[in-house]
């Protein structure tokens, strides 16, 4: 109940307000924060795949309110603060709450799928969760911010997730470079769609759970119906791309 009150829907007029500052360090902090919240939600979905896909179990206990509470715990462990404590009047607070509301919306909208009995694999995997959350977030933050999960072109399965020209260049020249520090984000002020913007690229790497679908043997069809890419542990698998318009 508390989570639903703290993270109720923010009016579009508030979310779309012009940013009050253009501090690159603040923009980078906001970008990393949005990436951390998305990863927190993905982590919960990843950990719950066995339950989600259990054909005998009905209610999985993964309502929007329940999931956001667990995501907040993961975010808190990563950042040392409760995301709900970020000043709601600040740009950071507005966008973070819009994102948390998007997570709640997506989970509540997909309860029938998640809780279906008699069916094993539901297709509600972390990548699908992230795409739906990013789409819901875009509706709330329209004109101010966008979040997208992309990655190296040869690892993209959904055409909508293809990197744009700037993202593709950053992935190739920075994030895939042998001297790039693991987990280090790349950021830059760059005009996007004819508007000044600050962009953040946060790398994601394959862990053991990812390899069930993306690992070896290369070409073998995985549970989602796609051929495996033959990826290896700790390789760059995806990138959370954040655009903060100015």
Q: Could you characterize what this model shows?
A:
The protein contains ten helices and four strands, in the order ααααααααβαββαβ. Strand 2 and strand 3 form a beta hairpin. The longest helix is centred in the first third of the chain and has 24 residues.
Q: Could you give the order of the helices and strands?
A: HHHHHHHHEHEEHE
Q: What proportion of the residues form beta strands (DSSP E)?
A: 5-15%
Major sheet, described briefly? 4 strands, antiparallel
The order of strands across the largest sheet is 1-4-3-2
Radius of gyration: 18 Å
Q: What is the average of the pLDDT values? A: 91
Count of DSSP H/I helices: 10
Q: What structural class do helix, strand and pairing data support? A: alpha+beta
Tell me how many strands there are: 4
Question: Unreliable stretches, pLDDT < 50, 5 or more residues?
Answer: 1-21
What overall form do the CA principal axes indicate?
globular
Q: What is the distance, rounded to the nearest whole angstrom, between the alpha carbons of the first and last residues?
A: 35 Å
Helix content: 40-55%
Task: Describe how the helices and strands are arranged.
Elements (H helix, E strand, L loop, with lengths): L1 H5 L5 H4 L8 H24 L1 H4 L11 H16 L11 H19 L1 H4 L11 H15 L4 E6 L14 H11 L10 E4 L7 E9 L5 H4 L21 E10 L1
Antiparallel strand pairs: 1-4, 2-3, 3-4
Helix pairs in contact: 3-5, 3-6, 3-8, 5-6, 6-8
């Amino acid at each position: 109940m508390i989570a639903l009150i703290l993270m109720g829907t923010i009016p579009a007029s508030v979310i779309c307000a012009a940013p009050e500052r253009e501090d690159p360090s603040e923009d980078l902090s906001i970008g990393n924060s949005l990436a951390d919240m998305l990863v927190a939600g993905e982590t919960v979905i990843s950990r719950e795949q066995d339950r989600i896909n259990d054909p005998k179990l009905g209610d999985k206990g993964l309502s929007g309110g329940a999931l956001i509470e667990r995501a907040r715990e993961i975010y808190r462990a990563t950042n040392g603060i409760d995301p709900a404590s970020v000043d709601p009047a600040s740009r950071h607070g507005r966008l973070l709450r819009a994102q948390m509301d998007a997570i709640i919306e997506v989970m509540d909208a997909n309860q029938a799928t998640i809780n279906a009995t008699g069916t094993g694999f539901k297709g509600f995997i972390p990548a699908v969760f992230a795409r739906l959350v990013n789409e819901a977030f875009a509706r709330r933050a329209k004109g101010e911010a966008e979040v997208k999960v992309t990655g190296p072109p040869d690892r993209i399965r959904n055409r909508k997730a293809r990197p744009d020209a700037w993202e593709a260049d950053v992935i190739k020249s920075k994030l895939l470079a042998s001297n790039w520090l693991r987990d280090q984000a790349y950021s830059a002020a760059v005009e996007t769609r004819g508007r000044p913007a600050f962009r953040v690229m946060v790398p994601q790497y394959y862990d053991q759970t990812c390899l069930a679908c993306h690992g070896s043997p290369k070409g073998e069809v995985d549970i989602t119906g796609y051929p495996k890419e033959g990826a290896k542990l700790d390789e760059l698998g995806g990138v959370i791309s954040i655009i903060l318009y100015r």
